[in-house]
């Protein structure tokens, strides 16, 4: 007889994971291995596609968080790659667990909700949703048992499969698998390009806070490449070395290496001397006004003079009481805030 431990189900806004209890009784279930998993859902209905995607599991001392995504295409994720990246057009829905229940023999069950995606919008305000109003079929219960992992899964002890049941009726509607693939939740790429003579931000002053270390703390496996380091400066009425946003956008598209968002989550960081619309740095094209793809890159202004407006007058935009010791200094010479700005603007949105 397996005793059941029920989680408190908290209603959170959609597209965020729900917290589940951290410590199921040790006799009933080992805790789920944190990191990225690959999930598959195959409905029993004839001709139904198999849905696939990542599942992300994290825990704190207070709670466990389980959420993921499902894609409806035919591209097979390779477990050796870690968290799967699948074609954007196949994005089908957001997955979250609302309850984790211990079973016997390393089994467990998950209450899962699949929220289908309704399509992107140019602007999403807080009252908008890009998701369906209800989870598919009102939510499922998936009863999982250890199973032998197909080849390629790196941890044969952490592969499970089982039936998907409609939570309200118990009707079996399909099969579900989940196999652990990586300690990282997501993997991303960053390409850095600079104008001639600009420094490449790689670390803080101490050298211990790097792109790798900062992103690893958030569960991201980041790979950083330095691309073109002699990007020409466009002519700009403000002066030599200045880029406006459209010129930044053109530089990203013109000078970056080949980029395929259906296979990689990539971001571009453009290092220029001065920016027209902002002093230190800014995301380029947040509203997709140039080529229909928003936020492909970001720029920072390495020769910004600290405490000044873009036109050189004393700062009135940020209204920051800059310490006298840094006012007027070249931004890239203040390694820590400059690297911090690069990381801040370079967060993959
Ligand atoms: C995949 O799901 C999306 C979002 O619901 C939909 O627009 C698209 O037509 C689906 N594609 C296939 C191959 O089913």
TrEMBL record:
Record keyword Signal present: yes
Residues spanning the signal sequence: 1-17
Record keywords: Signal
Presence of the UniProt keyword Signal in the record: yes
Protein name: Concanavalin A-like lectin/glucanase
Biological classification of the source: Eukaryota, Fungi, Dikarya, Ascomycota, Pezizomycotina
């Amino acid at each position: 007889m397996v005793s059941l431990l029920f989680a408190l189900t908290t209603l959170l806004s959609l597209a965020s994971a729900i917290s589940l209890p951290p410590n199921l009784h040790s006799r009933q279930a080992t805790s789920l291995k944190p990191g990225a998993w690959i999930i598959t859902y195959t409905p029993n209905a004839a001709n139904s596609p198999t849905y696939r995607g990542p599942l992300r599991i994290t825990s704190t001392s207070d709670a466990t968080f389980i959420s993921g995504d499902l894609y409806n295409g035919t591209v097979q994720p390779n477990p050796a790659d870690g968290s799967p990246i699948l074609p954007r057009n196949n994005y089908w829905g957001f997955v979250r667990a609302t309850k984790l229940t211990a079973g016997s023999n390393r089994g467990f069950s998950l209450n899962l909700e699949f929220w289908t995606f309704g399509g992107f919008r140019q602007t999403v305000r807080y009252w908008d949703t890009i998701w369906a109003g209800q989870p598919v079929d009102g939510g499922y219960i998936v009863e999982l048992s250890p199973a032998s992992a197909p080849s390629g899964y790196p941890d044969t002890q952490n592969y499970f499969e089982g039936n998907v049941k409609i939570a309200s009726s118990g009707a079996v509607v399909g099969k579900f698998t989940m196999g652990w693939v990586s300690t990282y939740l997501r993997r991303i790429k960053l390409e850095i390009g600079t104008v001639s003579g600009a420094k490449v931000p790689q670390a803080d002053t101490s050298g211990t806070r790097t792109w790798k270390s900062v992103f690893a703390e958030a569960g991201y496996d980041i790979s950083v490449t330095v691309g073109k380091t002699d990007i020409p400066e466009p002519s700009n009425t403000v002066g030599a070395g200045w880029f406006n946003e459209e010129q930044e956008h053109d530089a990203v598209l013109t000078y970056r290496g080949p980029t395929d968002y259906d296979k990689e989550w990539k971001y571009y960081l453009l290092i220029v001397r001065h920016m027209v619309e902002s002093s230190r740095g800014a995301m380029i094209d947040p509203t997709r006004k140039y080529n229909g793809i928003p936020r492909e890159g970001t720029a920072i202004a390495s020769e910004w003079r600290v405490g000044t407006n873009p036109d050189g007058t004393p700062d009135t935009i940020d209204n920051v009481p800059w310490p006298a010791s840094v006012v007027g200094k070249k931004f890239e010479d203040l390694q820590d805030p400059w690297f911090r700005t690069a990381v801040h603007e370079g967060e993959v949105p």
